Amino acid sequence: MSEAVTVTTPCSGAAKDVEAADGKNQKDIWIFGYGSLVWKADFPFEEKRTGYIKGFLRRFFQNSIDHRGTEERPGRVVTLIHSEDPESKVWGMGYRIGAKDKLQVLQHLDHREKNGYERHSVSFYPYPWSTEQVNDPQSILLYVATQDNPSFAGQSDTLEQIAEQILASVGQSGRNPEYVYRLAEAMRQLYPGERDDHLFELEKLLLKRDPLANGQRKPDPATEGDGTRSELSKEG
Predict the structure, then answer these.
(1) List 19, 46, 113, 178, catalytic entry
(2) Which of 56, 98, 130, 233 is deepest in the core (most CB within 10 A)?
(3) What is the homologous superfamily of the domain 29-209 according to CATH?
(4) Which pTM does this prediction carry?
């Protein structure tokens, strides 16, 4: 997620999926996490799968005035933007929400993502293959910060500028740099060998400048592993 415009309207099929998600039938739904939901799901779910969506890039283009910053000193968190490459992948975590829980979960997530995010529907590709879980592509809901929301930070800032903003920010969920570190580490553990240059380069900048990072450097994802999936990536 080269850069183009952010998602501003629901993707194909979203209206049907959102209608289903809002409780007008008894089907389960899927939710895709590409930020903090990768490592922490604070809602009930029936199943979780590692995997990816296509045609997007993950970028730290959204200000956070609640979870990782304040109105006076906003932090930065991720959103998705369209990629010029339709095969571009964003790796994350898919959660299957039971029909009995979906209204509660969606109300919770709508509140959690109220700072500029809207629901959209895309296709989710579970990976790796599993003998015990669904393997077919699934319609999945995700939250994307729209370009016209008040907290959209734009695409013109350099990684250095984003890093400086992150270093100075703390919100109700903790220090903004920790958000970056945890997301980067989750990506390395779940998807060894997969690159996310925007995320990993930002992490490097922060680790060089963050006095609380204790000088600890994470392994370079370009040289780590052989591209195969770790055991952690197979957990359900």
Answers:
(1) 113
(2) 56
(3) Gamma-glutamyl cyclotransferase-like (3.10.490.10)
(4) 0.80
